[in-house]
Amino acid sequence: MNRGTAINQIYKSLMIFSAFICGNQQIKSQGILLENAIANRQLQAVFSATGNLDGVNTNSHIGKCVSYQLRNLTAKPMTVKLDAGYIFKPEDTTIQPLLFTDNKTWVLAAGATFKGYLNAMCAALHKGSPQKDRSYRLGKMANGVMKKFAELVAKKQYQSSQAQSVLWAITNKKDLYGELSGNTQMEKDLMNFAKTEIGIDPTTRGQIYNPKKQLEVQKKVSVKVSDVFNTEDSGTLVIKILDQYGNVKLQQKLQDQKSPGEVKYEFWISSADLPLGKYIVKYYINNEEAYKTNFELKFDE
Q1: Which residue in 232, 226, 221 sits closest to 293, CA to CA?
Q2: How far apart are CA 238 and CA 289, in angstroms?
Q3: Which residues of 232-246 are buried (b: 16+ CB within 10 A; e: fewer)?
Q4: CA distance from start to end of the chain
Q5: Which of 108, 110, 102 is nearest to 65 (CA)?
């Protein structure tokens, strides 16, 4: 082989090697979504609740809530990614789903198994805590405000009880009054998020919602209230809707109850009329309370 041929051969080899490296870097930067890798049976994934990693408590709401084991089922290396905002669904529907609040990328060799923990937060205040070893599966990506919240927590690494409270404000109308002091940058950011994205002011008792923002974010939540009761009186029938603090939010004269007996009444109420939350309905005849019930305006799960 003469000198010119040798140089050309070396040049070709370098070009091939360079293309291989660039190609690998591109694959690594893009990666495969974990959701797709599981669906395509390229990857086996097992998820469970960790409980607190200190070994003392049996459940945990924030931080490294999810234990995982991933196994590459292919004969090639694989780069897999999981973006903030995915929801982990529990096999036991009485316990809380978990919102993934981080960004994660794995590079798995062919046939390799990888274990570890993922940051997440509970996303259903009224359900049970995610106890240790309870099984979970990867669900879909959240949308809207929940997705924005997860991205904020992941970017700033706000894995905290204060952030958990904000998530519960999104999913379950948790009152944020007294939860955020605003003394740290994290709390300032979370307060700003609550005001601009959820439409509430954490410094005001009773979850005062901004009506315009509420309609934009919550897309008009509605509920039907149906009541049947008996009364021994006749006279003017008035309905009052009160918040949890006893404040009258809506009041309307219905009709005259001409004689004692059964009263039937139903109505629709929506977030165009009231902020999300729990309410008390009271019926009055001649200014005397005749019947009381309640309802809740809330997000669909």
Answers
A1: 226
A2: 9
A3: eeeeebbbbbbbeee
A4: 73
A5: 102
Tokens of 78: 């694989």
Q: What is the mean pLDDT of the chain?
A: 80
pLDDT bracket for residue 262 (50, 70, 90): confident
Q: Which residues sit opposite 117 in a β-bridge?
A: 67
Angle at 230 between CA 224 and CA 235, to 5 degrees: 95
Model confidence band, residue 48 (pLDDT cutoffs 50, 70, 90): very high
Q: In terms of residues, how long is the chain? A: 301
104-108 sheet: strands from edge to edge:
32-33, 78-82, 104-108
Which of 26-40, 158-172, 207-221 comes out lowest in average pLDDT? 207-221
Classify the C-alpha dihedral 162-66-86-123 as positive or negative.
negative
The pair of structure tokens assigned to 244 is 């949890």
Give pTM, 2 decimals: 0.60
Q: Where are the beta strands (DSSP E) in the chain?
A: 32-33, 43-49, 64-72, 78-82, 86-90, 98-100, 104-108, 113-122, 135-141, 222-231, 235-242, 248-257, 261-270, 277-285, 288-297
Contact (Cβ atoms closer than 8 angstroms) between residue 262 and residue 283? no
Cα distances from 286 to residues 228, 261, 266, 290, in angstroms, run 18, 15, 20, 9
Best CA proximity match to 97, nearest among 84, 86, 109 = 86
In 3-state terms, what secondary structure has residue 188? helix
